[in-house]
Design goal:
This protein is α+β, with helices and mostly antiparallel strands. It has 3 domains: 125 residues, no CATH class; 64 residues, no CATH class; 127 residues, Beta Barrel (Lipocalin). The protein has 14 helices and 14 strands. The strands form 4 sheets. Strands 7, 8, 9, 10, 11, 12, 13 and 14 form an 8-stranded antiparallel sheet that branches. A two-stranded parallel sheet has the order 1-2. Strands 3-4 form a two-stranded antiparallel ribbon. A hairpin with a 2-residue loop joins strand 3 and strand 4. Helix 5 runs antiparallel to helix 6. The protein is globular, with a radius of gyration of 25 Å. One of its GO terms (molecular function) is violaxanthin de-epoxidase activity.
């Protein structure tokens, strides 16, 4: 038997969510609720309402890392009050969680929970990888290796506008970042990204493609085992320019907000002219900051994995090399519908 001192210790975190928390509980219950929550070391209540503020009762119970709800709600101009009071980190955690929740997607709601756990209980390795922190070494290396690209970007109004716009995006807001890049697209930004961010890893990024959840490709199609050729035939689908069919797939639904921001996504897969080459050509509609509709297209190289129905896709997009792992989960026999899963990660090519 072990003593109580040897028992593991866990911090209790209570996260209240929902518009119903805008008002406090009935008076007879209020003290009981307060007593039950008093043992929780961190308490955060947020709401889905546009005002983003909870009622005074829940506000009085809010506490993150010892910082009260009133202080968290008032970080001061440019966060100066929080900085002077020593609670900048707690205020940022609360702000990030609220921002993620109000993006109203399942993926970012889960991310909000991870931010809370990582910030007030114990660090999560998966979250540490999502926080690129540039250091003097990465900055010096990038400036030394990319002087022309720095000069080109910092003397280009559009490149500077793009960087300024991206800096205002919320935590892990890929939709916002891509809108900024498209709105202020320039060759100077692309060259800066390719050299400083990609090749020299200016941000000292350690982000890797996630290994979970594990997606398993379908094993058969039309009553026969799935092979590499059959799987690629499913991706090609109805696309056959020689027969006058210049259409492939149209995205109907998805769960990734970075991809689902595009109103129209047309997908084509086709075999290349070189032996054993396969390509993915998506065309999609992007809305700029000024409301302008912009059509974009990309060409991904597709490489088979050992398992039929699994591929690695690679592309250079605005100077950043990224790789995606795609899985064919299912398809109807006549190919009216198919289901795919993918995971994404940038490729860091750090030169010294």
């Amino acid at each position: 038997a072990s003593s109580a001192a040897d028992a593991p210790h866990f911090d209790l975190v209570l996260l209240g969510l929902g518009v119903d928390l805008a008002e406090g509980p009935p008076e007879l219950c209020a003290q009981t609720v307060r007593s039950l929550l008093s043992s929780a070391t961190s308490r955060l209540f947020i709401t889905s309402t546009a005002a983003r503020s909870v009622g005074p009762y829940w506000q009085s119970l809010t506490s993150l890392s010892g910082v009260s709800g009133d202080d968290l709600a008032d970080a001061g101009f440019l966060g100066l009050k929080a900085k002077l009071g020593g609670y900048t980190e707690a205020a940022k955690i609360q702000s990030d969680i609220v921002d993620l929740w109000h993006r109203r997607t399942a993926e970012e709601a889960v991310y909000a929970m991870l931010v809370l756990i990582d910030g007030v209980t114990q660090p999560l390795p998966a979250m540490a990888d999502q926080k690129p922190v540039p250091n003097m070494e990465s900055l010096t290396r990038a400036i030394d290796k990319c002087p022309d690209q720095f000069r080109g970007c910092f003397t280009s109004p559009r490149c500077l506008q793009s960087l300024a716009c991206i800096s205002q995006c919320g935590l892990a807001d890929q939709s916002c970042s891509y809108t900024c890049i498209v709105s202020y697209s320039s060759d100077e930004f692309t060259q800066f990204s390719l050299c400083a961010l990609q090749k020299q890893n200016l941000l000292n990024s350690q982000i890797e493609r996630p290994t979970t959840p594990r997606a398993v490709p379908m094993e058969s199609f039309r009553g026969a085992p799935l092979t590499h050729d059959v799987a690629e035939g499913v991706l090609v689908g109805h696309f056959d320019p020689g027969a006058g069919r210049r259409h492939g797939w149209l995205v109907a639904a998805g769960s990734n907000p970075a991809y689902e921001q595009f109103a129209l996504q047309y997908q084509l897969w086709y075999k290349g002219s070189a032996k054993n080459t396969f390509w993915y050509h998506p065309t999609f509609l992007v809305e700029g900051l000024d409301g302008q509709k912009i059509w974009r297209a990309r060409d991904y190289r597709v490489r088979r994995k050992d398992t039929p129905g699994m591929w690695d896709f690679s592309v250079v997009d605005n100077g950043i090399i990224s790789e995606e792992r795609w899985h064919l989960l299912g398809a109807d026999a006549a190919l009216p519908n198919s289901v795919m899963a993918f995971s994404w990660g940038p490729v860091n090519i750090t030169s010294h």
